[in-house]
Structures are given as C-alpha cells and as structure tokens.
Design brief:
Layout: E1 7-11, E2 22-29, E3 34-41, E4 75-79, E5 82-89, H1 155-171, E6 175-179, E7 184-192, E8 196-202, E9 208-214, E10 218-223, H2 233-241, E11 246-250, E12 253-257, H3 261-281, E13 295-300, H4 303-313, E14 322-325, E15 330-334, H5 340-357, H6 364-404, H7 416-425, H8 436-447, H9 454-458, H10 471-488, H11 494-505, H12 510-518, H13 521-529, H14 533-546
Parallel strand pairs: 12-13, 13-15
Antiparallel strand pairs: 1-14, 2-3, 4-5, 6-7, 6-10, 7-8, 8-9, 11-12, 14-15
Length: 547
C-alpha cells in the first residue's frame, strides 16, 4: 500500500464529541401526592473517567413519604458510542419544584481525549487486537505542502489583496508603549502633545478604544514592523474559501474566523506560547532552517459550518473537534462553546432557572439554593468547554509544529502512538507537564484490568489511527500513548528516545522508508533504546503502577 498520511491528526472529544445534552424528566409519586421534577444533563466528563463520589442528600420536605423514589432522578453520562460505565449520578429535590439538592463534583477538569480520525464508533464486535498490517509496496509518497501557484493574480484577486492589506494596516498596531507600572500597550498613535500621547488600541474587527497616556508614565515608545500587512497568494486563496469570515494575520499565522476577535487573539496567543515552548523543549529535534511559515487557521465558532467543511475536505474527521492538514498547512478548529449540545444545555439551564424564580410557592431559601447551584453548574460547564478548546488548539498546533520543524519523517511512517503521544504531551499549559486527565483515564483502565498489551499499542500504524482497534479500546490506546511518551521523555530514556525520533525523521530515500515500514515499530523503538521487549514491559508495568 502507499505510505500516505497526508492529513495530520484529528482532535476528537471522544467523551462528548457533541458537548452536552439536557433532558427534563418528570416523575410522579401519586401515593404521596407529590411531584418530583428531575434535571438531567450531559456533563463534561474527565475523559470518560468519572470518580463516583457519594451524593449528599438534602431533603427540602420534612418527613418525606417513604414511597417517594429518591433515585428516580439521575444524570446519565454517555459517550458517542453509548454509555461509558455505570455513570448514573443523582440530583434530588422535593417540595414540588426542581431543586437539585446536590451538585456532582468532578474529580478534576482535565484533558480532552485527543483522538485521530473520525468520531464514529467502530462496529460492535470490532477486534481489539492489533489489526494485520498490510504489506507495503515500493510506492511511497513524500509528505509536503501543496505547491504554491505562481500564476499572476486576476484583477479580482489583485483588488482583494489591496483591500485585505488596507484592512490589516488599519488594524495592525504601529507602536508599543511601555509604561511605568510595567504594563505594555500596543496601538496606533492618533495624536501627540508635549504631555500626552493618544493611542488607539484596536480589537480587530470587534472595534477599538482611544486612550490617553501621560508622557511621564511612559518608559519607552517602540515602533512595530509592518510585515503583518503583507497578503500572500495563499492568504487570498484562504479568504476566497471563506469570504464571510474575518481575515486576520499575525505571522506566521493567517486566520479566518467567524468568532469574536478576542477568541481569535487568544488562539494566536496560545499558539505563540506553544511555539516558544516547543522550540525550547524539542530543540534537539528541530532541523536547521526549519521554521513555521504561512500557517493557516480556520476557527469556527459554531458546529454546523465546521461539520460541513470537514465533510467536504476531510471526511474522516467530520466528527472531530479539529484537525490539521499537512498539504494545506492548515489548522481547522471548532470552538467548543459553539457546539449545538453545549448551547442547548446552557439554554435549558437558563430556562430552568427562570422557571424556578417564577414560582411564588417555593420557599425563598430553597429557591436561592437551587438557583445558585444551577448557576454553578452552568459556570463550570462553560469553564470546561473553554479549557477543552485550549487543549484542542495546543494539540493540533503541536501536530503542525512537528511537521513545520521537520521532526516528522518525510514519509509519515511514525506509529500512531508516537504521533498522538507527542501531541498529547504538548496539551498542558506547559509542555511535558503531568497530564492529570489522561493519567486518570489510564489508572481507571489499569484498575479495571483493561490496559491494552504494550505491543498492541507500539505496533499500531494506520492512517485511521486507533479507531481500527474498536470503540472499547480507543480511549485506552490514547492514554497509553501519552503515558509512554511521558515515560520515555524522563531522564532514564530521554536521549535515546529522541534518537529514535531522529532515526525516523532522517529517512530520506524510498528504499529506507519501505524497510522502516516493513519493520515492526516496536522493534525499531527497542533497537534505539538498547533494551529488549521484556525489559521495556517490566519498566512500563512498574511505571503504570506508580501513576
């Protein structure tokens, strides 16, 4: 088969690829003449890892009748292929109104599942063992960005280029002021007097404000370069695909988005921070003269257009939360605040709170307690959705940097665990930090005796990623991939592990690529580490036990 993995890894929130769902359940207890109204909702999971805490009961009715079913109301958590485990959690309330008298507390707000490929569940009964690897032929393909079109711009494109450059010039800051309190502001100087500087601070297409700064407060005034205003042919082609989106450029990023400018600015800030950390953390792997250039970002604020675009250009990733295309050098991201299920459950929470406040027969103290808890749930869900978006940005950004810095082999022959393990290794706010969410997922699998054989994970190499393993094994495979990467990046194996990555990176001929592809990935790893499979298995088991 052709060694063809042109598309970078996709990012799937496997636990709730469609964020949240709210369901209102009515339960009647006729013998007690009381009515229980339970609130149920999909709640962000900790990567399918849920710590079952005892639920505190607070009855709002003195001496409630014994016939009331206290377990009638519950929150059911499910993943895209069905329920994950015994995930019933209960909210109870009496006195004929929907008060959730206990709020489920999550173990932690942690990592989103970082899964390659589409989010469709595997057919029931799919094998969880390593699928047979098809024998490669002599046909190989070098992964490289799509070549630039050198044809002259059409009159329409030339006019679009001028318009976009004028737009960028009007939004791009020309000066940076460093103030005495160490605050730094950027903008365009619109007026100066002997004592004051008037600075217009742009918020992109979302507007601007003009502020006055006393010269006595200013430590330094620096001019800023204007290269951000250069619009390339690739920029024009990008905007032509999304003419109703806003275009922004902060080299090396060119962004089109329908999201507010603050979201776009935050995305660029996260990617810039990631790039700086990446350059420091993986300096030994970066090829000379390799720098990120002309990176395109498409940032969708709502789900439907994202799904439609993914269906058109990358069908395997249609159910993902984002993906990276190596041929286009393009990150495609979905803001998790814009998923249909998240919007739906937020609306339902708001509706329930309004219904609660409109009931004059409810005790004021009970109403306040329930209203406060509903607001808390809403706030926590929003916080987690934002955190998921940040992890999505860092995950897909890591895939892009691995390609841009020449760390990925020209033939894309890396095993799945290595590609996704590195991306997940970069998800925390500091690259290489302990990833609590993935660690807890691994611990859960370990305690349930559901860890995949190490050889199964290390030898897996398929353009469809771990989805060929079948739904029950996918999340475990990704957790083990992160854990193996985290394990090998420790001092004990770090130098030889980096040499292993270099050995794949430095393959430059078709013959060498075919030979590497025919070999078991585990064999290549063991050879680089200088140990046998039993030694690695023992060290791995000891490491997993200590997590």
């Amino acid at each position: 088969m052709a060694i063809d993995q042109e598309e970078g890894g996709g990012f799937l929130d496997y636990d709730r690829s469609y964020l949240f769902r709210a369901v209102v359940t009515n339960v009647n207890d006729k013998s007690a003449s009381r009515k229980l109204i339970g609130f149920s909702s999909w709640i962000p999971l900790n990567c399918c890892f849920v710590t079952q805490h005892p639920v505190e009961r607070v009855d709002t009715v003195r001496n409630p009748p014994k016939s009331v079913n206290r377990k009638a109301n519950r929150v059911e958590l499910a993943g895209i292929s069905g329920a994950f485990g015994d995930s019933a959690m209960q909210f109870s309330g009496y006195k004929r109104f929907p008060i959730p008298t206990a709020v489920y507390r999550w173990a932690a707000y942690v990592a989103l599942a970082a899964l390659l490929g589409c989010g469709r569940s595997a057919p029931s009964g799919a094998a969880s063992a390593t699928p047979p690897q098809p024998a490669p032929t002599a046909e190989v393909r070098v992964l490289k960005p799509r070549p630039a079109d050198d044809a002259a711009l059409t009159p329409e494109q030339a006019a679009l280029k001028r318009r976009l450059e004028l737009q960028l010039a009007s939004e791009h800051p020309t000066h940076r002021l460093t103030l005495g309190n160490h605050r730094v502001v950027e903008g365009q100087i619109v007026n100066e007097t002997p004592t004051t500087i008037m600075l217009r601070e742009e918020y992109g297409y979302s507007g601007s404000i003009i502020s006055a700064y006393r010269r006595s407060e200013i430590i330094a005034i620096d001019g800023l370069c204007s290269n951000a205003c250069e619009v390339t042919r690739q920029d024009i082609a990008l905007y032509e695909q999304f003419p109703n989106f806003h275009f922004t450029k902060v080299p090396p990023y060119s962004i089109v988005s329908d999201a507010p400018y603050t979201d776009v600015e935050k995305t660029v800030r996260l990617l810039t921070q990631l790039r700086e950390q990446f350059e420091h953390h993986f300096a030994a792997l970066i090829r000379p003269n390799h720098t990120p250039q002309n990176i395109q970002i498409v940032f969708f604020s709502t789900e439907e257009p994202f799904r439609a675009y993914a269906r058109k250009v990358a069908p395997p990733f249609v159910a993902s939360a984002g993906f990276y295309s190596a041929t286009e050098n393009r990150l495609v991201l979905l803001n998790q605040l814009g998923t249909a299920e998240f919007v739906d459950v937020q609306d339902r929470l708001t509706q329930r709170r309004r219904e609660l406040e409109s009931r004059p027969d409810i005790d004021p103290a009970d109403r306040h307690l329930a209203s406060t808890r509903l607001a808390t749930v809403k706030s926590e869900m929003t916080y987690e959705a934002k955190a998921m978006t940040e992890r999505l940005i860092r995950h897909e950004g890591a895939h892009q940097l691995v390609s841009a810095y020449g760390i990925q082999s020209r033939y894309g022959i890396e095993p799945t665990w290595l590609s996704e393990g590195l991306a997940q290794y970069c998800e925390p706010s500091d690259i290489g930090a302990y990833h609590r969410g993935l660690a807890e997922r691994l611990i859960k699998a370990r305690d349930a005796n559901r860890l995949l054989p190490l050889r199964t994970v290390l030898n897996h190499r398929d353009p469809a990623g771990f989805f060929t393993l079948g739904a029950p094994s996918i999340e475990t495979a990704y957790a083990e991939s992160w854990a193996m990467t985290f394990f090998l990046m420790q001092d004990r194996h770090r130098a030889k592990f980096l040499d292993y990555i270099k050995s794949l990176r430095d393959i430059r001929t078709d013959a060498a690529a075919i030979a590497a592809y025919k070999a078991d990935p585990e064999t290549l790893l063991l050879r680089a580490l200088g140990i046998d499979s039993n030694t690695l298995e023992t060290q791995w088991q000891q490491y997993v036990t200590r997590l």
